[in-house]
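Entry for adenosine-5'-triphosphate complex. Fields follow.
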Amino acid sequence: MMIELKNIEKYYANKGVKSYILRHVTTSIKQGEFVSIMGPSGAGKSTLLNILGMLEEPTYGEYHFMGEDITAMNERKRIELYRNHIGFVFQAYHLIDEMTVAENIEAPLLYKKIPGAERKSRIADVLDRFNMVAKKDLFPNQLSGGQQQLVGIARALVAQPSIILADEPTGNLQSAQAEQIMDLFKKLNKEENITILQVTHSEKNALYGNRMLTIEDGVVKEDVQIK
Amino acid sequence: MFKLNLKIAFRNLWKNKGFSLINIGGLAIGIASCMILLLYVAYEFGYDKQFKNYNTTYVAYTNMKANGKTFSWAWTPGLLAPELKDKYANVANAARLSYPFEQMISHNEQKLKDRAIFADPSFLKILDYKFLKGNSNGLLQNINTVILTKTLAKNLFHDENPIGKTVKLDHSEALTVEAVIDDLPENSSIKFSYIMPWKLYEKREKWIQEQGWGSNFCLTLVQLHNGSLDQLNDSLKGLYQRNQKNLTNELFLHPLSKWHLYNEFENGKLVGGKIGQLKIFLLLAICILLIACVNFMNLSTARSEKRAKEVGVRKAIGSNRKSLIGQFILESTLLTFIGTIVAFILVEISLPYFNNLLDINLVIQYQDWRYWTILLGLVLFTGLIAGSYPAFYLSSFEPIKVLKGFSIKSGSSFSIRKILVVFQFVFAACLIVCTAVIYQQLNYIKNKPIGYNKGNLIQMVVQGNLKSQKKLELLKERLLKSGAAKNVSLLSMNIDEGGNNTSDVSWLGKRTDDKILFNQRGIGYDFVETIGSEMVAGREFSIKFPSDSDKVIFNEAAIKAMGLKNPLGTIIDFGGRRAVIIGVMKDFVSESPYQKVAPMVFYSSYNNSGGVVMIRLNETNNLSNSLSQIDQIVKEINPDYPVDRRFVSDSFEEKFQDEKLLGTLSNWFGGFAIFISSLGLLGLALFMAEQRKKEISIRKVLGASTANILTLLNKDFIKLVAISNVIAFPLAYIIVNKWLSGYEYKISISFLPFLIAIGLSVLVAVLTVSLQSIKVAKANPVDALKYE
Ligand SMILES: Nc1ncnc2c1ncn2[C@@H]1O[C@H](COP(=O)(O)OP(=O)(O)OP(=O)(O)O)[C@@H](O)[C@H]1O
Ligand SMILES: [Mg+2]
């Protein structure tokens, strides 16, 4: 089992009043699944994804990632997981503005301490695959939104993660560009067996995946498989 | 990773040119100031340490009790050096030398007045001067010999080889040049251009042979084998008394290495000296560098929101804190490095100016590895200090907070930033107060009456023909007749010089236990008239009273110290001779203007070696005409010597050297400190204005005027500056009070320096902040709001 959540709760206390964001979320995600999380604005989708990505801590509940208890995990171990297993794709791309496309893609490999020659070949590989070879020396602000998101995904992929967490990856994009990204996700999921978890508002995008979780007011309302 | 980080660091610098400029500029000025101050400190610390044996070399000091105090000075009897060498096993060498004095030296037509000393042969064993030409053995043994320094040899002989050639001392003594030594380093206490044998001194000055143990007229240098100085100092106690019973003087040895910096004694105890000033400069150097570091910290953290995203992303893709810290430290070190290069340029440009100002010769020792080590240390230290806070602060961001949208609470970071700004301005305000007080004190002392009129007064060295009484009288007559001079008189030494004192004065009713030290001066006719002083009682020496050889005049301080009610007509014993007091002169300052005037006794005298002619210029005549007239007359009477005259006001000015130096340095570096601080403020304002762009736009839409907005933005900063002043004032008060306590005559601390400090710092703050924020305040609100 890739991810196991048991009774996850999250609330923010404000002047003694607790406002719950997530309540009793219990679910599990297997290796190789492509899960779309849906729900109205403010439902807690991003919060859930952040908890899964260990960017936020749940107030209560148990969370096991690849069999390991996250709540008892130290910082070093968590950085290990980031380096080897988790790739993030953000709605706002979050590329490092001071780095070129190639350098942005290279960064996680540097943290993983991958030797230079292999780094080069991997970057070349990814750039080739994303059709970005010509753009490799440009800076993020010289790219279109869709291109930036491609780089974001390329960066997540280059470290060969086991899971990609994507929060509205196409939220800022035109539908044609969005389609391209979704195709890519689907392909990665199929061909490389990478687990993908995406938050999306669009039914159409959600259908690219093979499972759909609907969240409302912090509670999982629906959990359906898609053929 | 390192390479990429370096590349990114450069790109960051380039992208944020404004910030980089402020940062590098601030750091460069900080480092340059620090470098110049350190160079100066090193120069002062290096005093007398060029010699191989400086660690085992000592200067003999004599403690003398007089006027109820103990005076310590490096004057000793001529008998001391042989005695030390013979009777004390631990003494390796002991040498006498005369104090340097200006003497004419000539070779053919080449005549020069230069600084000379007479010394024992062992002087050259104690201090290893660098020999360039001639044999270094057996020097100063033969009586008619001389050793020249390089520059003097060059000036006298040009390209000729001087060894074996003859030069003339004072147009009389023929001396053979035995050796040429390298020019002395600037920072050596014993300065001369040529050395002659002590024996020649004894031959020329017959009185030396007759001097006993109570007569202190030369410098004694002692070199020890080893062992503790305290032990030797103990065994030296009572040395004078063992040789001459009635003496109360005490001898002690003072290390050569401390001679320059630790030279102030109070009642026989070392109390410090120039070292105090040096410590202030050292502190100043460190503080200025810290201020520049603080700037960097402030600006980097202020920019943190921009960097936050980068930190968040890096963390999410697997960076740990350590490598982030490394990256930020790398950036700060890079900036420091660039700052250092700029600082180098600044230092090279400003050094000549400073050398001129301080009248010294500082150079960057590029070939000295120690210099580079210190510099490297400085860069790393600065980079680390400046980079550490931003590095730890920035790297601590939690990625989620950052990535979720910028919701960094700037509360905590802003309060640290506030503390840093306060620190800067505390320092700046302190410096302003101190500088103002130093200037006030200097002005006060300068304007304090000195007892005579030093303007339009010239003193001219008595030399050559002028040593004859006839020629002197002729000179006086001609000067007066020419109309260039209103009055002419004589004085046995420079009017602004101390020394030459005696306690050998007794009178009826003198208590046997009190010993009063009198400065003794021979003066010519019309002396009081000439210098523009006045007689409190009686008369001065005059041509109308030709038989004044057994008459003396005292100054007021002397009469007070002696306790005489009716001084006029009192008969005293002066150096074994009977003398009558015929007048009391108003006190005038001859030594330190900061101290009370010492008792003085004047006797009538015509020629006295080392004496000067005092000339009061005729103010109704054109100054340059008068001067050229004087020069012409002197040349006619004394053709063999160049005219050696100086304005008393110029000589007197040199007494303020130390205070002026302190004033100038604190002024300059205080200015730099304020400038760097305001650069920092500028950066903060720059950042703040940008950060509050949206808020400002909304306020404007709601109807706020530009002035309203400026007030809003300035309020915070002014509060900080005000707090800084409140903290700085007691601090500055303590410092200034301590500094002033060293002076007998001093100003009382007023409100003015504090007003200046607060006024200036608030003004600077308001100007910097407004300059920056006015742009934002005037901008069209739509621009800022459209993109939200
Ligand atoms: N730091 C916080 N303090 C208090 N409440 C918070 C905080 N962060 C998020 N929330 C609240 O949590 C709720 C869920 O937020 P979340 O970002 O998970 O929603 P979402 O489902 O992703 O919405 P959207 O589709 O608009 O992105 C929101 O109502 C939000 O107000
Ligand atoms: Mg969301």
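NOTE: Residues 407-411 of chain B have pLDDT under 50 and may be disordered.
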